[in-house]
Write a structure and sequence with these properties.
- The chain is an alpha+beta fold and 424 residues long.
- It has three domains: 169 residues, 3-Layer(bba) Sandwich (FAD/NAD(P)-binding domain), CATH 3.50.50; 111 residues, no CATH class; 95 residues, Polyamine Oxidase, Chain A, domain 2 (Alpha-Beta Complex).
- 36% of the residues lie in helices and 23% in strands.
- The chain has 16 helices and 21 strands.
- It has a six-stranded mixed sheet, with helices on both faces.
- Helix 1 links the parallel strand 1 and strand 2.
- The protein starts with 6 loop residues before the first strand and ends with a helix.
- The mean pLDDT is 95.
């Protein structure tokens, strides 16, 4: 697929910026990507700690993330190398919980609900009736509803065991604050997106090796320029289009601003003041990841669900040994973590370690690293208005903070980058 070649500068080397650069290059444009950090990846990147390649947050995907999978194919990354694909499970360390099998996901979900070992028949029927009602609603609802309002009639155990962990995993926002409309969008794509759409895709590689590094190699092999440690100071209009100022100036016919919302607002303010104001006003939700190590230890599965509570911050634990080969390394993830961030890192670590003892079965755990991403995702609340993609003719924005069909996820960032490239 080709078009008239244009000079395109992409500011920002996170997943949205990389997606925009790859798509613009694929369309035949001359692309320069500028990233202010020493390495690519943005908020989904690899960090080096004591010789270990850790992620700044444990990310997962689902089979419905079609643009993510398509991009990896473009980059020459085989899904089997990138992800461990397995049917959706929300089971605890003992193996109890919801476990979907193969086949059409809607039917597999119904069977899994009926087989849930801890729910009464009345609870199972209530959930299946609610799911059928959501399907009749075409997975749409009043945009002002929260997930808690949407599911208020469900039994308490169903909300605790299924709705709450699914909500915080998909939206990084607690159910009492999360957008029901966005929750239904993701749920509908998972259950009715075709065979395998509800599968979990657990990364087999550190995030840097998953997409940023292959994208950099692909871009360079296809004639694009990639520069790290290249901060963009300003963007101004020029007689021929745009001029991007930094350590050196770049003339462009089109610019894609794929930096953080705050940085994008700074760069856009001179050209789209209202856009910048909206971007700066977006609410955020943190994620805390606690890395613990016990050589030789294993979880029952690569990912297990944990019971969140007043003294239990983490909702999920990941066995990095099973996933990436890092023996005895575990990631405990605290999503929707604002309350725990306010409690303090020390309190969060102590509480998470207590959870880990129950999940791993050992008290002799080494703390490797605790990573708090204070602006991990946009807080996905009802009627959230995200800024649009177009700032000015030839000046576009990309990122999970830009208006789109998905919440702040890898898929949302990739879709945004591709859309911006196609709009050039």
């Amino acid at each position: 697929m080709t078009t008239a070649q244009r000079r395109v500068v992409v500011a920002g080397g996170g997943w949205a910026g990389l997606s925009a650069a790859v798509e613009a290059t694929r369309l035949g444009h001359a692309v320069t990507l500028l990233e202010m950090a020493p390495r690519l990846g943005g908020r989904a990147r690899t960090v080096d700690v004591e010789g270990l390649a850790l992620d700044n947050g444990q990310h997962i995907a689902i089979g419905a993330y079609v643009q993510t999978l398509a991009l990896l194919r473009t980059l020459g990354v085989a899904e089997s190398d990138a992800f461990m694909r397995c049917p959706l499970e929300l089971c605890d360390a003992a193996g109890a919980g919801l476990r979907m099998g193969g086949g059409p996901p809607a039917a597999a979900f119904a069977i899994a609900v009926l087989r849930h070992p801890a729910w009464a028949l009345s609870e199972k029927i209530a959930l299946l009736r609610a799911a059928a009602a959501w399907h009749r609603m075409r997975f749409r609802c009043d945009p002002a509803w929260t997930v808690a309002q949407l599911t208020a009639q469900l039994p308490r155990r169903v909300r605790r065991d299924l709705v709450d962990p699914l909500c915080v995993a998909a939206l990084n926002t607690p159910a009492h604050d999360a957008s029901a409309a966005m929750f239904l969008r993701v749920l509908g794509d998972a259950l009715f997106g075709g065979r395998g759409s509800a599968d979990l895709l657990l990364p087999r590689q550190p995030l840097g090796a998953l997409m940023p590094e292959p994208a950099e190699r692909w871009l360079q092999a296809h004639g694009a320029t990639v520069q790290c440690r290249a901060r963009v100071d300003a963007i101004e209009q020029s007689p021929t289009g745009w001029r991007v100022h930094g350590s050196q100036a770049h003339d462009a016919d089109a610019v894609v601003v794929a930096t953080s919302a705050s940085e994008s607002a700074r760069l856009a303010r001179a050209h789209a003041a209202a856009w910048a104001e909206r971007a700066e006003a977006l609410p955020y939700e943190p994620i805390i990841t606690v890395y613990l190590r016990k050589p030789g230890a294993r979880l029952r599965a690569p990912m297990v669900a944990l019971r969140e509570g007043p003294d239990a911050p983490a909702q999920f634990a990941f066995d990095r040994g099973r996933l990436t080969g890092a023996d005895g390394l575990f990631a405990f993830v605290v999503s929707g973590a604002q309350r725990w961030l306010e409690a303090g890192i020390d309190a969060t670590l102590a509480a998470t370690r207590r959870q880990a003892v129950g999940a791993i079965g050992s008290a002799s755990l080494e703390t490797v690293k605790i990573i708090a991403e204070r602006r991990a995702t946009i807080r996905c609340v009802p009627e959230l208005v995200r800024p649009s993609m177009v700032l000015a003719p030839g000046l576009l924005a990309a990122g999970d903070h830009v208006d789109g069909p998905y919440p702040s996820t890898l898929e949302g960032a990739i879709r945004s980058g591709i859309a911006a490239a196609r709009a050039i």
